[in-house]
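In response to the reviewer comment on reproducibility (Comment 2.3), we provide here a single inverse folding case reported in full, input and output, so that an independent group could reproduce the run without further information from us. The structure tokens appear first.
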């Protein structure tokens, strides 16, 4: 798993997280609050690849910084 500074998430490519978020939005008409806890090394300086169904995180927390 990796993240970029635009709060995008790169997972394992199976779509489980995306499917969960889509179902949550269908049930509650909104996405849940999405906060990632990450190692500093997981934050990429370049953008991670995203698709149209990917949902940005609200915040990424590392031991060195909070990305909002």
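Designed residues, in position order:
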């Amino acid at each position: 798993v990796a993240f970029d500074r635009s709060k995008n998430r790169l997972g394992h490519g199976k779509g489980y997280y995306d499917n969960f978020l889509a179902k949550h939005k269908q049930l509650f008409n909104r996405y849940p609050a999405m906060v990632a806890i990450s190692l500093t090394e997981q934050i990429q300086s370049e953008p991670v690849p995203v698709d149209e169904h990917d949902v940005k995180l609200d915040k990424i927390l590392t031991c060195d910084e909070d990305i909002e």
